[in-house]
Amino acid sequence: MNKRFFPFVILFLTIYLTLTYLICFPPNDQLVYKEQTNGNENDVKSSFSNPSTCSDPNGVVSNEERYMTYLPHSGFHNQRNSLENAVFLSWVLNRTLIMPPILFSKKKYIPHRPFDVLYNMLNGNLTNDIALCEIKGVEDQACKFTQLDWEELLNFEFIKKHIRYVHRNDTNFDVKELYSYLNITNPETQVYTLAEETRYDFQFYDDENTTQVSNDNFKFLVNLCSLQKRKDKLIHFGSVYHLLRFNLKNEDNIEFINSVRENMIINHPVLLNVGEKISEQLGGKGAYIGVHLRLGDNGLDRKFGEKAEENVDQIIKELLNELPTTPLDEDDVYLAKDLFPVEAITIDAKKCLRSIAAEQRHVPIIYLASDKPRKDQRLRKFFREFPCVFMLSSNFTKYLDALSKLKNPRDGALLFQYFVPFIDGIVAARGGKFIGTPESTFSDYVYRLHHRWVGS
Predict the structure, then answer these.
(1) Would the pTM of this model clear 0.85, i.e. be above it?
(2) Domains and CATH numbers, the chain
(3) What end-to-end distance do the CA atoms of the chain give, in Å?
(4) DSSP-derived secondary structure letter, 42
(5) How many Å apart are CA 11 and CA 18, to the nearest integer?
(6) What region, left, alpha or beta, does residue 370 occupy, with left being phi > 0 and alpha being psi -120 to 50 degrees?
(7) H or E element, residue 302
(8) What's the chain's Rg over C-alpha atoms?
(9) Contact between 352 and 387 (Cβ < 8 Å)
């Protein structure tokens, strides 16, 4: 070999081996976080202008990527509300959102706590859960814990058009891994933490004339404009949960947060297919009334347990106001919007209508979603009043077989036990009318699905 080319050969081999190593063994941050490419040239452009809550000409001008993240907690719908709020913050602050996964657990959940306590609970409890699942195997019944990326369950088209995000994949929420990914070497100067000392310290506002919180749950106002101007590489929120977390006056901001919530819709094909099949057994979309009764108990769910009988009575009263004045023929079905014959009513609803006395056929077909089974004593008066009430656990369990083999792409965990409640919500939402339990985040979300799919 000509000696003149020897250095070039060495350089080529060095580059080749380096690239090969990086492909096969990527750096730790690439193993922990998955980058999300948001759209392409053919995507529809955002209908929202760039957020401009700040008019200060000396605002932040930087080519460096800036980030934000938050801490998840509580049940699914509280986590969903937190994500919706975080998407808005990401948009208005023009920061890449480091998105925590959905935390699913059948044994326990991480409660809403102040920042430091919440971080310790996430790290400690999840580490224990992960260790148990590693021992038992993710498909074992003892492993009742998994973390699912939000995109696996919800429609992300709107989010992809408006913000940048990456998935947070350090499963035990180790802040050191977070800092390593972001190449943060001095957190004191590179990280701004909004650490709540109580459950609800901060309410965020966008108008300089706002001088007080709009809800007594909150103690302090935080100006979105001041956050937008910050140069820190990472803004780390604790909990961002609460439907009234924002005190907004800017019309663009109000429209955007409303659009985020309206577009946070389930789009998992298996869940939608199962829900549609069950709905068809009740006469199809719009041919029955969906009801959600959260009964709770006297333990952790005391708020709903104490009001259970009151909520049952209120929903019965509201349903009775929906009844027509004349009985139906046996081939007719009650529809929330109107009454008219259905030629091809499916077997479950048809059997029920034919089995009851003619004078009762003016009552609606009802699909009841509840956290308690049919035998719960607090539901007795409900079933006495309405003879054709269907529940997932009593009437449609055979349709759930389609969920039995669904696995989490993250870790291979079976999703059946976590996905069943979504079927309840999907079927209830497809009714011609939906009546939910006051203050229930589950009911609030089913109202949203109902409005999207049925439109009333």
Answers:
(1) no
(2) 15-39+61-262 (3.40.50), 269-453 (3.40.50)
(3) 80
(4) T
(5) 11
(6) beta
(7) helix 302-306
(8) 26
(9) yes
C-alpha angle 376-379-380 in degrees, rounded to nearest 5:
100
Identity of the residue numbered 401: D
Q: Is the separation of the CB atoms in 152 and 194 below 8 Å?
A: no
φ, ψ dihedrals at 10, nearest 5°: -60, -45
Q: Which long-range contacts (CB under 8 A, 24 or more apart) does 386-389 make?
A: 386/319, 387/352, 387/356, 387/360, 387/363, 388/349, 388/352, 388/353, 388/356, 388/363, 388/364
Residue type for position 175: V
Cα separation, 137 vs 128, in Å, equals: 14
Per-residue model confidence (pLDDT) at position 360: 63
Order of strands across the sheet with 389-390?
389-390, 366-370, 289-293, 433-435
User: What SS3 string covers 117-162?
Assistant: HHHHHHHHHHHHHHHHHHHHCCCCCCCCEEEECHHHCECCHHHHHH
* Eight-class DSSP state of 361: T
Q: Is 28 helix (H, G, I), strand (E, B) or coil?
A: helix
> Would you give the DSSP letter of residue 278?
H
Q: Which amino acid is at 391?
A: M
User: What integer pLDDT is reported at residue 140 of this predicted model?
Assistant: 82
DSSP calls for 63-108: SS--EEE----SSHHHHHHHHHHHHHHHHHHT-EEEEPPEEEESS-
Task: Provide the token pair at 127.
Answer: 């580490």
Residue carrying structure tokens 């769910």? 301
**For the chain, the helix, strand and coil percentages under 3-state DSSP, each to the nearest 5:** 45, 15, 45
Q: Residue 455 and residue 427: Cα distance in Å, rounded?
A: 15
Please provide residue 371's backbone torsions phi and psi, each rounded to the nearest 5 degrees: -85, 0
In the 8-state DSSP scheme, what is residue 203? E
| Type of residue numbered 18 | T
DSSP helix/strand/coil, 57: coil
CB 407 within 8 A of CB 401: no
For 204-268, give the DSSP string: EE--TT--S-SSTT--EEEEHHHHHH---SEEEES----TT-EE---HHHHHHHHHHHHT--B--
> What backbone torsions phi and psi does residue 229 show, to the nearest 5 degrees?
-85, -15
- The pLDDT score that the predictor gives to residue 393 is 92
Residues of the chain with pLDDT under 50: 20-32, 37-46, 57, 328, 330, 333-345
CB 256 within 8 A of CB 88: yes
